[in-house]
Design goal:
158 residues; mainly alpha; two-stranded antiparallel ribbon; globular
């Protein structure tokens, strides 16, 4: 079974390919941790393309207008300092979940991260790479614990 980090990489790469309109078939198999043979997606319920689609739907639920939100980290990202992506997502997620008590921070984080990713790829294409979102998710223990508590990526938003 692939690690959480590796699964996150596959999901984010599938999301990027979807946003860029490229072929996603290469994301449908995972190599084993030992570097062995690829695993067929039928062997497991983990399908990064399906999960990326779920994440995109979650991002569509985010109603933030990033051009009107006041956030120093967001302003930096929109100016091309994409290394601030994780900080911007964290800040925006906390404020959004504070304004919407029914929305837990971790879910807000995932929604905002995807929505901001979509916004940035339209506004400044070729500046944001999968690693920015991968690092934001893998580096946030709260979000990771939330995903794992729900049964992993394959059970997210089911």
């Amino acid at each position: 079974m692939a690690t959480f980090e590796r699964q996150t990489e596959c999901v984010v790469e599938a999301l990027f390919l979807d946003l860029l309109g490229e072929d996603e078939s290469s994301c449908r198999s995972l190599e084993t941790d030992s570097g062995g043979q690829a695993r067929d997606s039928c062997e497991t319920s983990f399908d990064p393309v399906v999960i990326a689609s779920r994440l995109r739907r979650m991002g569509d639920q985010c109603n933030m207008d990033f051009e009107r939100v006041s956030s120093e980290a967001l302003a930096e990202v929109l100016k091309g300092k994409v290394e601030k992506f994780g900080a911007a997502v964290d800040s925006l997620s906390r404020s959004w979940s504070d304004r919407n008590p029914e929305l837990v921070y971790e879910r807000a984080f995932l929604c905002v991260s995807v929505k901001l990713l979509m916004h940035v790829t339209k506004k400044i294409p070729h500046m944001l790479y999968p690693r920015h979102l991968i690092q934001a998710i893998n580096g946030n223990v709260q979000v990771r614990n939330y995903i794992e508590a729900h049964g992993g990526w394959e059970n997210l938003d089911n």
